[in-house]
């Protein structure tokens, strides 16, 4: 009998045939893992979604190029150094590291994808890192998933992992993943690093479409500070070890889509919860826009507003800030028809702030706050997740490079 989705331990190595490892290569001052490796024991189809920032780091450019072939078997990641704005030397460094790992894994270079995160403008400590590559490969184990998740953290307070399984026609398929991200979060793709794995068999073109679709409705619906990174990527490997083939029109593909959506949704929420200095999560919903595009633009503008986010931080019921952010967005509407709700309570009605707005102080101090904006201009809908903006965020980022 087919069972429901079941959350399981194992993170990025929960799916059959996946291994992970992490080492300290001396990139960061702290004696913690700073280089991670995720690998499939056999060939895998692969897909990726990348930052739309015009300034892209060499590992992003390398992975984009390699994924045109639709196949990969390993992903090398590091924290502490973005290897961005490092010129031709930075590109050579990335290629050299990938070559070293490919050789140790006995793979062609183009089967190794790469990702980096950390400070922009500094080069990787190549001698230290190259010395650690044999240890990194030799320590690949299914049980090292949390170490790999720790190895990609920067200002994150905790690792972010998720895994689940589902029985389909008597066979079990699994999806697992890990992510990092706390600051520089304003996806126009995804402002963070994420690695997702599955043991389902999926053709590369199908995998690409699936990842783009799900990313748009998970990672692309979150923001922490409105700043898009140069190194963002979501990388997905599918090795087919479960024996379940997810082809177009099949039940397996429908189930896999649901599992991937749940996994990426979970990781996205964890990133917003872990926003630098954040104490609260806010869900912004916009309904009644002229189009879905305008609704989404409005939701994003409100979610990215520093004044709205500081209002949330202080539990201050200044709902005029929400209205102002909506009015400053690309959504066109009649302000005399604007309604704003917090936790289901209407605080702005027909463009007028109600007398009971001060009661929102209690609702705004909850760990999670829901804001709904009704524009009464059409049938378009959109939504975003964000967090509050606190003094701690300023402290962290005022001294990030030092």
The fraction of residues in strands falls at 25-35%
Radius of gyration: 22 Å
Counted up, domains total 2
End-to-end Cα distance, whole Å, is: 57 Å
What's the shape?
A: globular
Main sheet overview: 9 strands, mixed
Order of helices and strands: EEEHEHEHHEEEHEHEHHHEEEHEEH
CATH fold field value of the largest domain: L-amino peptidase D-ALA esterase/amidase
Estimate the helix proportion, in percent.
25-40%
Instruction: Write the CATH homologous superfamily of the largest domain.
Output: L-amino peptidase D-ALA esterase/amidase
Q: Which CATH C-level class of the largest domain is it?
A: Alpha Beta
Structural class by sheet pairing and helices? alpha+beta
- Total beta-strand segments: 15
Low-confidence stretches: none
Q: Let me know the average pLDDT.
A: 92
CATH architecture of the largest domain: 4-Layer Sandwich
Count, helices: 11
Protein traits:
402 residues, alpha+beta, L-amino peptidase D-ALA esterase/amidase, Ubiquitin-like (UB roll), 2 domains, nine-stranded mixed beta sheet, six-stranded mixed beta sheet, 11 helices
Walk me through this protein's architecture.
There is one protein chain. The protein is an alpha+beta fold and 402 residues long. The protein folds into 2 domains: 6-273, L-amino peptidase D-ALA esterase/amidase, CATH 3.60.70; 281-398, Ubiquitin-like (UB roll) (Roll). Helices cover 32% and strands 26% of the residues. Strands 1, 2, 3, 4, 5, 6, 7, 8 and 9 form a 9-stranded mixed β-sheet that branches. Strand 12 (345-349) and strand 13 form a beta hairpin. The longest helix is centred in the middle third of the chain and has 23 residues, at 251-273. It is globular. The model has no long low-confidence stretch (mean pLDDT 92).
């Amino acid at each position: 009998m087919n069972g429901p989705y079941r959350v399981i331990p194992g993170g990025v190595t929960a799916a059959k045939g996946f291994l992970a490892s992490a080492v300290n290569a001396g990139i960061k001052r702290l004696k913690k893992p700073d280089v991670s490796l995720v690998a499939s024991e056999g060939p895998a189809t692969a897909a990726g979604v990348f930052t739309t920032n015009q300034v892209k780091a060499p590992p992003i450019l390398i992975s984009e190029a390699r994924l045109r072939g639709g196949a990969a078997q390993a992903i090398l990641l590091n924290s502490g150094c973005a290897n961005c704005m490092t010129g031709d030397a930075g590109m050579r460094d990335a290629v050299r590291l990938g070559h070293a790992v490919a050789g140790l894994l006995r793979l062609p270079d183009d089967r190794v994808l790469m990702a980096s995160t950390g400070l922009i403008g500094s080069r990787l400590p190549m001698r230290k890192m190259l010395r650690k590559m044999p240890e990194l490969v030799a320590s690949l184990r299914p049980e090292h998933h949390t170490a790999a998740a720790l190895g990609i953290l920067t200002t994150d307070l905790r690792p972010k992992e998720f895994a689940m399984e589902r029985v389909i026609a008597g066979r079990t398929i699994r999806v697992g993943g890990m992510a990092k991200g706390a600051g520089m979060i304003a996806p126009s793709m995804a402002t963070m690093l994420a690695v997702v794995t599955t043991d389902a068999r999926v053709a590369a073109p199908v995998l690409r479409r699936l990842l783009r679709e799900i990313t748009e409705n998970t990672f692309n619906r979150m923001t922490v500070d409105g700043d898009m990174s140069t190194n963002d990527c979501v990388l997905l490997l599918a090795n087919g070890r479960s024996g379940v083939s997810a082809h177009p029109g099949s039940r397996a593909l429908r189930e896999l889509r649901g599992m991937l959506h749940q996994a990426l949704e979970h990781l996205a929420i964890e990133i917003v919860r872990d926003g630098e200095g954040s104490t609260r999560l806010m869900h912004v919903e916009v309904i009644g826009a002229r189009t879905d595009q305008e609704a989404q633009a409005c939701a994003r503008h409100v979610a990215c507003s520093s004044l709205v986010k500081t209002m949330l931080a202080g539990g201050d019921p200044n709902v005029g800030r929400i209205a102002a952010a909506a009015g400053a967005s690309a959504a066109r509407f009649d302000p005399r028809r604007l309604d704003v709700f917090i936790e289901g309570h209407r605080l702005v009605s027909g463009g007028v702030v109600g007398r009971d707005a001060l009661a929102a102080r209690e609702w705004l101090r909850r760990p999670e706050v829901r804001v709904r904006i009704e524009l009464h201009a059409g049938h378009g809908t959109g939504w975003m997740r964000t967090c509050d903006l606190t003094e701690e965020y300023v402290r962290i980022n005022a001294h990030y490079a030092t």
